[in-house]
């Protein structure tokens, strides 16, 4: 039986400028999902703990003291360590910096961006990662296009209108499983998605795990995303 990771990194240092005014006085992961009374990071920690994670390293930056104050007062479902980058290191550098504080450097680990609100089986994703002997595995989502689509035939006749169809493309869902060796391949500063990931893809050492159908996934990037998340939550609890 595959041993799933029990440690994770949450990247929580972003400015969240597109979520203003919510992020004027708090970092993005501290924005509350309307109707829950819990910030995004609270949902993430509960999910990680449910999936068997015992230790989380939170990499903070923008308004780090607000995040640290909440973590200090909240009842947390796992052990949480916060690290603050001495200067902006980029996502790849931030991951490498945070990974140095993982309690078990010789074991695999999960990572997630601090603005992702999702629920799916991380254990199944870890098994997928192990089966492929991948160095890194990223979760893949198929988001809905925010506009209505128009379907036409070859002669230019409109056949149908489709409201918010699923994208034909899979996107990086911002949740990862990393092998022990991955941290050593990260840049000291800069973006791993432009350096480390393309290199691993060329070596066929990067795997993509499509989120199971009907899995809940949303990146909380704008005020509209918060509104949509609240609607979806109300629909789930109401129906």
Automatic annotation (TrEMBL):
Domain Nucleotidyl transferase: 8-234
Entries under InterPro entries matching the protein: Mannose-1P_guanyltransferase (IPR050486), NTP_transferase_dom (IPR005835), Nucleotide-diphossugar_trans (IPR029044)
Keywords from the named record: Transferase
Any GO molecular function: transferase activity
CDD domains the UniProt entry points to: NTP_transferase (cd04181)
The keyword Transferase appears for this protein: yes
Protein name: Nucleotidyltransferase family protein
């Amino acid at each position: 039986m595959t041993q799933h990771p029990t440690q994770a990194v949450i990247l929580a240092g972003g400015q969240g400028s597109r979520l203003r005014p919510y992020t004027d006085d708090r970092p993005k992961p501290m924005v509350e999902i309307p109707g829950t009374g819990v910030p995004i990071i609270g949902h993430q920690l509960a999910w990680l703990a449910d999936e068997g994670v015992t230790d989380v390293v939170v990499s903070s930056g923008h308004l780090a003291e607000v995040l640290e104050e909440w973590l200090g007062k909240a009842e947390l479902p796992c052990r949480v360590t916060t690290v603050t980058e001495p200067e902006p290191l980029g996502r790849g550098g931030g991951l490498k910096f945070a990974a140095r504080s993982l309690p078990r450097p010789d074991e695999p680990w999960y990572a997630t961006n601090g603005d992702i609100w999702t629920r799916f089986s991380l254990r199944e994703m870890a098994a997928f990662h192990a089966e492929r002997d991948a160095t890194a595995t990223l979760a893949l989502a198929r988001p809905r296009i925010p506009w209505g689509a128009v379907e036409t035939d070859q002669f230019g006749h409109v056949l149908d209108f489709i409201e918010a169809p699923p994208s034909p493309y899979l996107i990086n869902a911002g949740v990862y499983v990393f092998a022990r060796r991955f941290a050593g391949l990260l840049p000291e500063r800069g973006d791993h998605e432009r350096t480390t990931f393309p290199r691993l893809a060329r070596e066929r050492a990067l795997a993509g795990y499509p989120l199971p159908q009907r899995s809940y996934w949303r990146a909380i990037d704008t005020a509209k995303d918060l509104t949509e998340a609240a609607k979806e939550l109300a629909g789930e609890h109401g129906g």
